[in-house]
Amino acid sequence: MGKKVGSLKAPHLSDFVIAFVILLLCLTCLVPFFHLLAKSLSSNTAVLSKTVFLWPKGANLNAYITIFRDGQLTHSMVYSLYATALFTAIGMVVTVLAAYPLSVKRLKGRGVISLLIMIPLYFAAGLIPEYLLIQSLGLYNSMWVLVLPLAFSPYNMLIMKSFFSSTIPPSLEEAAYLDGANHFQILGRIILPLSKPILATISLFYAVGRWNAYADAKYYISKKALQPIQYLLYNMILNATASEAVSLSESTATQSTPEVFQAAAVMFATLPILCIYPFVQKYFVQGVMIGAVKG
Amino acid sequence: MKKMTRAIIAILVIALISASAIGCAGNQAPAPAQTQAPAPAAEKTAAPAAAAEKTEAPAPAAPRVKIRVPVYDRSKEGYPAVDDNYWTKYIQTEFGDPNNIDVEYVPIPRNDVMATYSVLISGKQSPTIMMEYDYPKVAQWANDGAMQVIDLNAFKAAAPTYYQAMVDNSQLGYTDINGKTYFVLSERPYYNTTFTYASFIRLDWIEQLGLSMPKNYAEYTNLVDKIIEAKLTDIAPLGLGLPSSAYAQNYYFRNQPVDETEWAIHSSLGTASLPWEATKKMLKRLNTEYSKGWYSREFELDSASTGGSDQMQTDFINGKSLQYGSYMSASVNWLTAFYENNPGAKLAVLSSEVSVEPGVVDQIKIRADNPFGMIVGFSSQADAAQLEASWKLMEWMIQEDSLFALENGVEGVTYVLDANGLPVTDNEYRGPEMLNHNNNIDMTCLVHASKKVGTIEQTIAAISPQGLPQDFTQELIDNYYYLKKLADDGRAYSDPVFAVAIEAESEYTATLLSLWQEYYVALVKADPSQFEALYADYSSKYLDAGYQEVIDERLEAYKAGSTTKLPK
Amino acid sequence: MLIKTEGGYDMDTAYIPPRKRNRLAFLKRDWQLYLMLVLPVAMTIIFKYAAYPGLRLAFMDFKPALGFESSKWVGMEIFQKIIKDRDFLRAIKNSLVFNFLDLAIGLPVPIILAILLNELRFKKFKRVSQTILYLPHFLSWVIVASIAYSLFKPDSGLVNVVMKSAGWIEKGIPFLTEKWHWAATYLLVGVWQGMGWGSILYLAAITGISAELYEAATVDGANRLRRIWHVTLPGIRPTIVTLLIINLGRILGSNFERLDSFANVNVKDFQYQLAIYIYDKGLASGNFSRATAVGLFQSLVGFLLVITADRVAKRLGSDGLI
After folding, report:
1. What are the E-state strand segments in C139-264?
2. B242 touches C: beta carbon within 8 Å
3. Partner of B105 at 20 to 30 A CA spacing, among A185, A258, B397, C192?
4. pTM of structure
């Protein structure tokens, strides 16, 4: 990107300054991950004594071996990947179907429909009403509860809509219409190919959003086998910090998951979703519009 | 172009089909919703009728009954799913199938019990059995109508062993709320001694200074001051935690005998008793100690909720602090880590006796736990057959054979018998038959709060930390007998139990906890000369913030005779 | 809905009477657009609006065991109680201030980052650094806060230890234990956590800017700063406006997990925000009616702000949201 402009000249001092700033920021972002990685590879004693910072002590792979042997996290991982893929696919279809018509300025009733879709972005009915709804829809304790209720995000729709209406000239669509194309053809042939960067971005938003979310699983899914991996993680970490308060009324040792495992579990659950970004990045190529306008 | 249109239409159709497929999938998935369909009707039938219906029910031809039993979900890595494992299947085949009952386990996240129950109840999905360790929680359920009134005679008929255990443990006084019977109670073995908790002190430091184990507060103070003087550590020698629940450790500082009214309104795990004299004495002592440099200047950040893990524990493991305490079990990872980091160090179990200071703490008084474990009630959404079935489950589980199997597992696989014929469980075993958290305690808590193995000595041996250079079994046993003597002398106090729900308590608990933490830190850190003024100020603010309402309500309940009394 | 397919309908040959044409011509032309909207609108209604009758919780004394049918109606009582509550006012004030600051810092930083990334010329580094920068988005707040505490504790925090041993400071800086310092730390950590993730959207928007514009600017002799000012920024303006309006609606809402993880007794004055209020006085004590009432208030304020901002944006010549 930007290479058409940039490659004309040799790197300037400002290029190095920018690179340096970015490098520093990157380092701050890497620190916590190296910290967790080092912990996950260290011995329990070293972690408990908080002497591990960026380099493992008493290095071993026990935590990871336990994760794979135990099976519960690996099961949730596969399951979560499946739910995320389904969620993203459905989310994208619905979002495109809403964003395109609403970006066509002459569409009658566009404002009302936009408003209708937008209101839920700000008004939530709250835990109990939503729970009752999920139950009456028959989604309680089913994988679909992770897929359907959140699959259409008004937030993502608004962003996509704003992209469509700002980057795609209305003239293009008008021309196609006069050529005899119907709206589905215009969407498929003109709009979508021109919108690859935003499609990639919104897919990423959907996928990562689903991957990171656990609040819905907390109340809508009680069966352990149907819970996504982030919920297991959340519970594991929260139970570790809350164990003090809990043990008072129980008056017994309630040892939580050792920090080594917690760190390993976080690493394990984060890595797969990180691998998506490079695919998204592929579509961030500048100047897609030129071809379209000229051709 | 046509291709694209077709593709889009295809996706649309798929989306629509999958959407309608969910309708079908949904119909199968929440089976409980359907099997529970008759449940709302049960609300009207109410409890007394339950007994009558029971006798009518013809046992053999009866339809299969489904009960839902709550089980804590602690999400611990390395354990099987709590709602579907070898032991849930075991209960189904050993108990369920012969009795024509389906037992379904409902995971309840340990850190979010109340909200989880609330949504389940709103959705008519309440577990048949509802249980908690804290009385105010079950009282709230009973008060709000989430639990049904039961007939203890019917319970006695259905679960004679369980009922007899309640009689033996003198628990019949705790079954009622608002004058109606709601609960049955599980046993808490050795409830009036907190023998599972132990505090460890650095014996090697004491010897290095040429002192002996401190026996009272004067000696203890001398020891800590000497340690600071001798610079045995470069940080504050003692840890002080931020109170994470509202529990105030003021038992030592109470008058002996304690005034019953004061005890009834102030002594509670739910709300801290800041304005109480005993709490003031406790804070005053902490304040003095803090001013002498005993505690970290940032102790309020040292609990587990800030910073991932407990800083006090870390300091102890790193050999930098004098003492640390926690609940005991066969493997205590911080003790293991301590010896690994401090080869040659020696520890000893510290007795509460070190707090004795004439005029302030004349005698040690301790907190006795509740004389019961789980408080077990039954959902108002359960029908008579479900009620009966859950009683059967409890009766089955309390039988020695069932309990033994659930707590020890399979002989030769998860445990072996030692020379005394006592089971020794293999904590490393990871096969399908492995026991869940703490020997399946989250299932067996229905009948008792902790596993019993033979005598108290053998029970302690089973929770004494293993694999360390030092063995503490004898010291822990001695500690038990010390605590038992206190209890026998009438110096172990349970908190009062209220037979009515204290509504102000559920209203203000969270607010008061947050204030208590704030004031606690401020008072401990205050300049000793300003302590009195600050204390008076905070006490009145605390009362205004809702504590006054709480104690007024408790006082009223106490006067109406709806509380337990102090043992005479 | 209004859709009616008329068999082999064709724009050129279909005869439409003039009067009808004026009123319903848009249907002829755009029925496919309405067809597309069926699925999203249906999903919104089924999964969102269908739960709204439950908002009546705010006017009831709701008890789970009694359900909606049998719980008592109390009218505006809950709202009256909240309005009188001093804690509520304190929570509102804090929420407003902190969310405003979050927006004021949190909005520009990802934009600047996206521009810097776009200007970066070392291709491999650019690719890798983008992935790295959005790593923090995957850490839960509990973990972020625990790392922050181990870095910033006044006595034993790594940063303070290093600065003290280097002789730069005498006493540890109370990054997390004094309310003003805490406010800065809390906000900056928030920005740090969200910047990489936030920049993705702007990067995508920058991609949409025609390369010809950049070439033209270069030909005109514009330097880097002028190119950014005259080409990049106007190019991503619609995205900025959209995000600004959307986020204005969240001016009273805050992330409970973030606030809770960064809590400590010294900073309650600032940390006590609406999310904490809702939790402490609503959910934690099983008081769903109060939680709903506060939520409703929060939503109304946010929504009014969004509508106003949308109007203003349209006046100023932007597209707006609706």
Report:
1. none
2. yes
3. A258
4. 0.86
